[in-house]
Specification:
Radius of gyration: 22 Å
Order of helices and strands: HHHHHHHHH
Shape: flat
Structural class: mainly alpha
Number of strands: 0
Distance between the termini: 26 Å
Largest sheet: none
Low-confidence stretches: 278-282
Length: 282
């Protein structure tokens, strides 16, 4: 197995690192309640933060019109606003820098022929997914600037899953180049273990999605007991709070937390059973 870390491969690994960093910073932005501090998305002019007292007052005035200020942070001082502004600013600046690092080298490598034309589609997909990620990110923020001080939990989850998809596709491409001399080896599901891994991966993606729903709906506060919820294994009205019934799967906090809990248990149980089976087959 030949290992080659050419410039394209190193670029891909760099993008992976930046995406992971953005996910971590994005998590901190949410925990710091800073995601709604910048109420506009100026792709070019937004690179520079407000300069001078007058510019800060204008930016603060825009934030004071938002639901978050009026319902959550009423009375916030300008100094306090600057703190959450800079947290979100760093997040957006990192996204801009990562975007440039994704697009510019891609065009350069394509022009130089470092990326084979037959494989350009995979690299173009990474670039387009990154653009889609930025768009979804703004739509997510915009959903929290209308009538309630919270972003759409569905858009939040899509934003997170897109980041993981970009990371997975970029890492797969980088590892293929590193281990298989620039060839993209197709994924093959030709064994029981491969199928099991695929099932576990699917369950993990669903579990991460429900983690996003839990975070967006603040469903983690619904019940603080384990393993029972409200003294029951199955709490009442899981599928009757909203109609049609299936909307409860993604809209009702109790149902979302219940699924998130039991999906984790089921995945762990299946993993243990499969591991024992694999040991027994040896």
């Amino acid at each position: 197995m030949q290992r080659t870390a050419d410039p394209v491969t190193r670029w891909l690994f760099l993008v992976c690192g930046l995406v992971m960093l953005m996910v971590v910073v994005g998590g901190y932005v949410r925990l710091a309640r800073a995601g709604l501090s910048i109420v506009e998305w100026n792709v070019i002019t937004g690179i520079i933060p407000p300069i001078g007292e007058e510019a800060w007052q204008q930016e603060f005035a825009k934030y004071q019109q938002s639901p978050e200020y009026q319902q959550v942070n009423v009375g916030m001082t300008l100094a306090e606003y600057k703190r959450i502004y800079y947290i979100e600013y760093v997040h957006r600046l990192l996204a801009r820098i990562t975007g440039l690092i994704v697009v510019v080298p891609f065009l350069y490598f394509l022009w130089r022929g470092s990326i084979a034309r037959a494989q350009a589609g995979v690299y173009a997909a990474i670039v387009m997914l990154f653009g889609l990620q930025g768009t979804v990110g703004w739509l997510m923020v915009k959903s929290g600037l209308l009538d309630r001080p919270a972003v759409s939990h569905v858009r939040l989850t899509i934003h997170l899953l897109l980041a993981l998809l970009i990371l997975a596709l970029t890492l797969w491409t980088a590892l293929n180049r590193f281990y298989y001399a620039h060839e993209l080896v197709p994924v093959r599901v030709d064994s029981g273990l491969s199928r099991f891994i695929l099932i576990v991966l699917g369950a993990l993606v669903v579990q991460i999605a429900y983690g996003g729903f839990v975070a967006g709906l603040k469903a983690g506060y619904v019940s603080n007991t384990w393993p029972l919820m409200f003294g029951r294994w199955v709490p009442p009205k899981l599928f009757s709070v909203v109609q049609p019934w299936w909307l409860n799967l993604i809209e009702t906090p109790v149902t979302v937390q219940f699924i998130h809990r039991w999906l984790a248990r089921g995945s762990s149980y299946c993993g243990i059973c499969r591991g024992r089976s694999a040991v027994g087959d040896r």
